[in-house]
Amino acid sequence: xxxxxxxxxxxxxxxxxxxxxxxxxxxxxxxxxxxxxxxxxxxxxxxxxxxxxxxxxxxxxxxxxxxxxxxxxxxxxxxxxxxxxxxxxxxxxxxxxxxxxxxxxxxxxxxxxxxxxxxxxxxxxxxxxxxxxxxxxxxxxxxxxxxxxxxxxxxxxxxxxxxxxxxxxxxxxxxxxxxxxxxxxxxxxxxxxxxxxxxxxxxxxxxxxxxxxxxxxxxxxxxxxxxxxxxxxxxxxxxxxxxxxxxxxxxxxxxxxxxxxxxxxxxxxxxxxxxxxxxxxxxxxxxxxxxxxxxxxxxxxxxxxxxxxxxxxxxxxxxxxxxxxxxxxxxxxxxxxxxxxxxxxxxxxxxxxxxxxxxxxxxxxxxxxxxxxxxxxxxxxxxxxxxxxxxxxxxxxxxxxxxxxxxxxxxxxxxxxxxxxxxxxxxxxxxxxxxxxxxxxxxxxxxxxxxxxxxxxxxxxxxxxx
Length: 466
Ligand SMILES: [Zn+2]
Prior knowledge:
Distance between the termini: 49 Å
Largest sheet: 4 strands, parallel
Bound molecules: zinc ion
Shape: elongated
Strand order of the largest sheet: 4-3-9-10
Strand content: 15-25%
């Protein structure tokens, strides 16, 4: 089966055809690093990491590029408020971003370009656009002319005249047309800046992604991804810049994730309902948050509430408990021959179903429902009078492998059941009575490893979990 991707550009699911066989080049728009990320930023980090993991599971080599906007008005403002240099602010929040997404088990990108390290490429890009007549300098600023790029608006399906009606020129701007957007911004007094053919200044926002994408992935890339809110104007502007200069398609597939709501309301500054990723990590297991995020298809909006996360936790525990019960059962299982193959065949079909769901535009919601079916099947098998080690292991491996594709981790440390602890304690007493101290010590160490604390009391041995 081949992977199908919903392409925002064509508004259709299309069969994924990579530029180079078994390779994927992916560019994901990253954060502006002036604050801790909120869960609206965590969603693309998790969903596109899952896309990447699925490609890797299918044998593709993925070149995953995620940029950091490390210079911009918000960073300059935040630095002034904190009495720091912009660089100190951006470095702090780049590290914070990396820590937060790592907690969600997001793999490190292949490349993490930063604007301040890509200035030369950005200047070259802008020069090329001026040479071709798509951009012009005005009093130290440089602007791009969308009207000159005849396909402007194709990603967000808007015509240039519709867009023109809503555009205004801000006071102090010297644009030729209200639609024109800045590629280079002249430095204000005492502001951090870089030299350029147009004087001291710094890049506008949109140009960085065009320049970085070209630097790390080439003129045409396989997949460009980001939050739905970036479709316009950011991605529309990236397309105009890149295709005007390079004269070839910028990205073959455009993927956008849906919005995040909090308690059924849109997250917004005015409502004051922003939830930082690190606050959430303090309150809930990040592994569960990831599982919850993936329980909804990436293009649909997702609603966050404590109750919904709690319910995701309970659902995930059903899978985990089954996994651990399979582990316990191994201790009393046999190397059965009869009936085994039938079960192994059934387990294998879940892999096909899981892949069919993921092949269909990364439908993680459906893929997770397949995992619940597999869990139900495992629980049915555990009802059998006799179980085979081979089948138990196959169930476990299938659950772990498929969850791993989603980046969700199982706790392999099965907790000892109360009756198991008690029977081990009884065995230890017996061993001591028979002066078999070696066995008694082995059991003591095993219990200690499982965090069981033993206390000798006049009434006998008491135990508790630490
Ligand atoms: Zn971007």
